[in-house]
Specification:
alpha+beta, outer membrane lipoprotein receptor (LolB), chain A, 12 strands
Length: about 230
């Protein structure tokens, strides 16, 4: 009996030691990834990329896919410039400047305008996913509990670190999964909604720090365009 107890205590002690080591190692991994993201974002002057968005309806088990291109000049908080040009399933241009947005659909001859925090913008451009792309280390740690879920390939052979960000306070979504490459660039963000629907943004063919003309973030609306506030 005493040998059994001693063996049992040794097993428990080893489990505790290795469990503690694993937690410490995971914490260090998370801090390393967040530091890379922070350093990368602070050095990023501009970004251009192809973008694919997948919106999954868990009730219908159906996925809608959108494709286009993105141009971004980073900034702190809402002080950034963004342009999305969707080409699939239809042409639509979305621009965000100084906390305001315009979403123009030529085929319909109408444009939505309003604040960049608008639910309408989120539905058209994947706002929650794009918002995560622009967060620094301090913002992420202040607003989310962070889990490290391992290394995974994204967009082909690109190896990434997979993080899960769970909001610390009540939010309109459960959590955000983020796949970050070795440079600290988030290549993919997947938002899981409260009803288990998901909204994913994938960036490919990235061009960083090229000169961008600020005028591209201003959308010229043709005469007669119907303006809808929202």
């Amino acid at each position: 009996m005493s040998n059994f107890l001693r063996t049992g205590f040794v097993a428990i002690a080893l489990a505790f030691v290795f469990g503690t080591f694993a937690v410490t190692e995971t914490s260090a991994q998370i801090n390393d990834v967040l530091k890379r993201m922070d350093t990368h974002y602070k050095a990023l002057k501009s970004l251009q990329a192809d973008v694919t968005r997948e919106i999954y309806n868990s009730q219908l088990k159906d996925t809608d896919t959108m494709a286009g291109s993105l141009s971004l000049i980073p900034g702190k908080g809402r002080d950034f410039s963004l342009r999305l040009d969707w080409t699939k399933p239809r042409n639509e241009t979305i621009a965000v400047v100084n906390g305001k947005y315009v979403a123009f659909t030529p085929d319909l001859g109408q444009a939505y305008t309003g604040d960049s925090g608008s639910k309408k913008l989120n539905s058209k451009g994947g706002g929650n996913a794009l918002k995560v792309l622009g967060m620094d280390k301090a913002e992420i740690k202040a607003n989310y509990n962070v889990e490290y879920l391992g290394q995974e390939g994204v967009g082909g052979a690109v190896q990434t670190w997979h993080l899960r960000l769970t909001p610390k306070v009540k939010s309109d979504y459960k959590f955000a999964d983020v796949w970050v490459d070795g440079n600290g660039m988030p290549l993919q963000v997947k938002i899981t909604q409260l009803n288990n629907d998901t909204d994913s943004i994938l960036l490919t063919k990235l061009k960083k720090n090229d000169s961008l003309n600020p005028s591209i973030f201003t959308v010229s609306l043709p005469r007669g365009t119907k303006i809808i506030k929202g």
